[in-house]
Write a structure and sequence with these properties.
It contains 12 helices and 14 strands. The chain is α+β, with helices and mostly antiparallel strands. It folds into 2 domains: 3-131, Nucleoside Triphosphate Pyrophosphohydrolase (Alpha-Beta Complex); 140-219 and 254-374, Nucleotidyltransferase, domain 5 (2-Layer Sandwich). Strands 10-9-8-11-12 form a 5-stranded mixed β-sheet. A 4-stranded mixed β-sheet has the order 4-1-6-5. It has a 3-stranded antiparallel β-sheet with strand order 3-2-7, with no helix packed on it. The N and C termini lie far apart (55 Å).
Length: 378
């Protein structure tokens, strides 16, 4: 059975030098080689590359984004070699594991068999690596951004961790925050701040006005008394008493999650103003520059939304969304919405967001009633 190894071509931030290690052991003892190591059985290739890079150099995802360069299969030696390439965002203090590390300028002769390992393969790899169009760092790659959408199994969660997209589900908000107690942005598609008077203003009216033909995707939010009433009939009566309206099936269905989030924020005031409400349909409209009219649960709706997100994320990360949703026990649209919220969170962290309404009111618990959305694309 073939074994698998990786090598990582690491350019410095100026892209005029490459990181090498000087091997202390055979094979190629005393010669310069790329950093890398063995991919463990069952380990995902990209995770193995980041792991080996961090173990051998101290460089982490926060410092670099790796891209798959090429694969080489050695049939006689019975192993596969996976090549990755990346460029440091800033200068990094290296941490050696066992092999000395040094930066070698691109002006060196990488065909010198007396200095470089790999039977002159390094020269070929370097030629390919120098041609690779490494993208400049984008806004999703320099922080921890979380997007959350309610789903049948709890909370569908998209985590953008310095460029790595992880899709997860959590049974409760408390368990999610326990896993990620600190973050750069956290946006959720669930009501924060509850009216108890028709004179109070939530962002729902502004969101419906902006979405026009898709206004029905913004459900009426129950009053605070309705959220804490027991049973649907009492919830309807409480809402009629407070806001002069009964409640639809959609509004009644989301009450348990509204209550869960409200209880969490009031029990953990340190997260007030940090966990922010948003709405994916408004976010998608802002990202696209016009309202997305396709239905999100059936084609071409998912594909259209994934195309919008591909401006900010790798298409590979956005592939097989249906299978990922099935594995996690949620809907494909839940994951896509959560990713949209995480991207909006990245925009928010970089000052590229605004609120609906512009001057939000607080509810009786001190929670601001607002949506955090991308700045409108002209």
């Amino acid at each position: 059975m073939h074994k698998t190894y990786n090598c990582i071509v690491v350019f410095n931030e100026k892209r005029d030098a490459v990181l090498f290690c000087k091997r202390r052991n055979d094979p190629y003892k005393g010669l310069y080689n790329f950093v890398g190591g063995k991919v463990e059985r069952g380990e995902e290739s990209d995770k193995a590359a980041y792991r080996e890079l961090q173990e051998e150099t101290g460089i982490t995802r926060q410092h670099i984004r790796l891209y798959r360069l090429m694969d080489i299969r050695y049939y006689y030696q019975e192993f596969d070699l996976e090549l990755y390439v990346g460029k440091l965002d800033d200068e990094v203090l290296l941490r050696e594991e066992k092999n000395p590390l040094l930066w070698i300028p691109l002006t060196e002769d990488f065909t010198d068999k007396g200095r470089f390992a790999g039977e002159q393969n390094i020269a070929h790899i370097m030629n390919i690596a120098m041609m690779y169009p490494i993208p400049e760092k984008n806004i999703t790659q320099d922080g921890l951004y979380i997007g959350v959408d309610g789903c049948r199994s709890g909370w569908a969660t998209a985590v953008l961790d310095h460029g790595e997209l992880r899709l997860e589900t959590y049974k409760s908000i408390a368990s999610l925050v326990k896993e990620y107690p600190s973050f750069d942005a956290f946006l959720i598609d669930m009501a924060i701040g509850l009216k108890n008077s028709p004179d109070q203003v939530r962002p729902d009216i502004a969101a419906r006005k902006e979405l026009c033909a898709k206004a029905s995707s913004v459900f009426p939010i129950p009053s605070r008394d309705a959220v804490y009433a027991e049973g649907e009939e009492q919830q309807k009566k409480a809402n009629l008493r407070r806001l002069g309206k009964s409640l639809s099936k959609q509004s009644l269905a989301i009450i348990p999650k509204i209550k869960e989030l409200d209880v969490f924020l009031n029990d953990h005031p340190e997260y007030k103003g940090k966990i922010l409400e948003s709405h994916p349909e408004v976010d998608f409209a802002r990202l696209k520059g016009s309202v997305v009219l396709s239905k999100k649960k059936e084609e071409p709706g998912p594909s259209e939304r994934i195309h919008i997100l591909s401006e900010y994320l790798d298409k590979e990360d956005l592939s097989n969304m249906y299978d990922k949703a099935k594995e996690l026990g949620c809907g494909q649209d839940d994951l896509i919405d959560a990713i949209c919220l995480a991207v909006t969170g990245a925009l928010h962290a970089h000052g590229q967001s605004e609120t609906l309404p512009q001057k939000p009111e607080s509810d009786e618990k001190g929670l601001l009633m607002k949506l955090t959305v991308p700045i409108r694309k002209i």
